[in-house]
Amino acid sequence: MILTQEKIEEWLNCKASLDAAKKVEKELRILICEALSDDKEEGTHRYTIAGYELKSKVSYNYKLDPEVANAVLTKEEAACISSKPMLSLAPYRELEYSELIDEYIIVTPAMPTLTISWESE
């Protein structure tokens, strides 16, 4: 195949259409999942609406706040550390309330997932 300007322009047009469709799909997914899960409880939720089976998954991102970690180290000590603290979610969920670790954790909503299929008979 010979690469032509037409093929390059066709690809650019397809890429632009795909990017636009992805943006709209993401916005609609968030809108639908928010409408389905008012309580924002983490986990998978199933619904049947207008003959469709909907499955949405609500999740959150957890990360450790480097500001808090650096607050207990000197600048020289902090400069020696080049690691990214990671939270082990299962043991964290089993902990009794701990104000100290809760100050260290930043929780943000993750991108919801959504599956829609025809209702099974």
Describe the 3D structure.
The protein is α+β, with helices and mostly antiparallel strands and 121 residues long. The protein has five helices and five strands; from the N terminus they run αβββααααββ. The protein has helices at residues 5-36, 66-71, 75-79, 89-94, 99-104, and strands at residues 43-49, 52-58, 60-64, 105-109, 113-118. The strands form two sheets. It has a three-stranded antiparallel β-sheet, covered by helices on one side. Strand 1 and strand 2 form a beta hairpin. It is flat, with a radius of gyration of 22 Å. The protein starts with a helix and ends with a strand. The model has no long low-confidence stretch (mean pLDDT 82).
Brief overview:
With 121 residues, the protein is of the alpha+beta class. It has helices at 5-36, 66-71, 75-79, 89-94, 99-104, and strands spanning 43-49, 52-58, 60-64, 105-109, 113-118. It is built from 5 helices and 5 strands; from the N terminus they run αβββααααββ.
Rg for CA atoms: 22 Å
By DSSP, the count of extended strands is 5
Q: Taking all residues together, what is the mean pLDDT?
A: 82
Summing up helix and strand content along with how strands pair, one would put the structural category as: alpha+beta
User: What is the distance, rounded to the nearest whole angstrom, between the alpha carbons of the first and last residues?
Assistant: 49 Å
